[in-house]
Write a structure and sequence with these properties.
Layout lengths: L3 H13 L4 H30 L10 E8 L10 E7 L5 E3 L5 E7 L4 E7 L5 E4 L7 E3 L4 E6 L4 E2 L2 E2 L8 E7 L5 E7 L3
Antiparallel strand pairs: 1-2, 2-8, 3-7, 4-5, 4-11, 6-8, 9-10, 11-12
């Protein structure tokens, strides 16, 4: 028979040898939640990357030259920007799908935007063609404003010589490019 002292030691040992069932349950729930978060982040990242642009591709463009003049010293106009299609997809430009030009005068803090369709007085010119154009990869196109600082009778930016201008070009398929320049006389 066990004496009282041995029974007491045996009972204490039994109490210390197991984890409380509540703590064990909480640990299992914590592990399950952490695993769920990891799986969720992985799946969300995978799905987000595959459905960003469903059904289409975005062009990759680059601004090769940008000039803005307080008068008409940019190839006979007040502004021109030449954009190169450096991607692998063609860009379709027409009067209904225009290139958007967003101007920011970094010196004065003013902004404006214009659509640059393939019509007059603003023209998109690819090898002498105007109208609906397909810009194949490695081809460049130019958007220019002939009038001195005006587009359809409204000033593009009221910038002075020496102001720093940031232009953001956005194609109809959301391809973008940016560049800065200083306004010349």
């Amino acid at each position: 028979m066990m004496n009282r002292q041995m029974l007491l030691v045996h009972t204490k040992r039994r109490q210390r040898s197991a984890i409380d069932p509540i703590i064990a349950t909480l640990l299992l729930i914590l592990i399950a939640v952490a695993a769920g978060v990891v799986v969720y982040a992985y799946v969300l990242g995978f799905i987000g990357n595959t459905t960003t642009n469903p059904g289409g591709t975005t062009s990759i463009i680059e601004v090769s030259s940008f000039c803005m003049s307080a008068s008409t010293n940019c190839n006979g106009g007040s502004m021109y920007v030449t954009i190169i299609n450096v991607g692998s997809t063609s860009i379709i430009l027409s009067t209904s799908s225009a290139v958007q030009l967003y101007f920011t005068d970094m010196t004065k803090g003013t902004t404006t935007s214009i659509a640059c369709p393939a019509t007059s007085p603003t023209t998109i010119n690819v090898n002498g063609q105007t109208g609906s154009l397909t810009i194949i990869p490695t081809t460049s196109y130019t958007c220019s404003i002939a009038q001195s600082g005006y587009f359809n009778g409204a000033p593009v930016l009221n910038s002075a010589v020496g102001d720093t201008i940031l232009i953001k070009v956005v194609n109809p398929d959301s391809g973008t490019a940016t560049q800065t320049t200083k306004v010349i006389s």
